Amino acid sequence: MQIMDQSPQATELAPAGGPLLAADALDFRLLNDFQRGFPLVSEPWGVLAGQLGCSEVHVMARLRSLHDEGKISRVGPVFAPNRIGASTLAAMAVPEAELPRVAMQVSAFPGVNHNYRREHRYNLWFVASAPDEAALARLLEHVGAATGCPAIALPLVEEYHIDLGFDLASGRRTRHAVRPVPRQALTRSEWQLIDLLQDGLPWTVRPFQALGDAAGLGEGRVLSTLSRWLDDGTLRRFGVVVRHRELGWRANAMCVWQVPEAQVSAFGHALAAEDGVSLCYRRRTSSDWPYNLFCMIHGQGRAEVNARRAGLAARVGLTAYPAAVLFSTDCYKQCGARYRAPLERAA
Questions:
Q1: In which element (H, E) is residue 302 found?
Q2: DSSP label at 14?
Q3: How many CB atoms lie within 10 A of CB 172?
Q4: Rounded to the nearest 5°, which phi and psi values hold at 124?
Q5: What kind and span of H or E run contains 125?
Q6: What tens digit of pLDDT does each residue of 77-132 get?
Q7: Residue 42: in which H helix or E strand, if any?
Q8: pTM (two decimals)
């Protein structure tokens, strides 16, 4: 799709060699500036257009084009972990020859929302979500039975920083306070709203009205519900959810350490305070997985990520502890969590 005349001129928006070099300025602002703080109003695209100096139609067209090009996953909510439903990170040790088949089968489950190949004996890593812990356990059993590869579940124990919304030019991120929030008891209509939001806002002038009509809530109730969820921490953010690999951040590594249980919280909070850490949390260990402290580092190349990891470990005091670095090499699936997805595999 060609850029219309009213869009800003192309400009260099990142240091030489960085992502989005010479990208269209309007596209960059759509991708970067509205990852959070998206206007929860009746006609949000018009608000964005007013801030960007272009037409509402053009904003919708560009965002839809960025979605179709795979640069954004959706415009919608990012729920905080375990505030609704249940979820876990899981891993499989898959024979290399079987990896394409197993990855495809795992991705076919609607309850799997992220699925990556990583450089480790445990080479397939995915996130599974379900309405509750019992349903989550059944989902993992179904995945194991379908693939012939049992998965280890590594559920979240303590969150230090979980938010993949960061500045696409500098890599700087928004720090936020982690607030313990009880799991929400949701009405049937609220669950239906969550289901409708899984693929993001519809591309209509009044998207919240369309959602409200479909969920039987009405536009005003949808907007007030989303605002309440943002205020109470159920939603981490609402906005443009970008695909970092497609925007130049092609190197990302899951960095893990085995630290004494009594010290993991202190190390986790110290790591989470550092720029360059996009995710940081404590997870449960297993008999075959001793690492309890996790962080994710995104970068434009492996050398950059390795250097950042080494610097972080030295500053925080982690260099003496057993560790592993798992670079992701293939992304098989990336979408919003589907908490009420059926257990059956997709056709």
A1: helix 302-316
A2: S
A3: 11
A4: -120, 120
A5: strand 124-130
A6: 988 877 888 899 999 999 999 999 999 999 999 999 889 999 999 999 999 999 88
A7: none
A8: 0.74
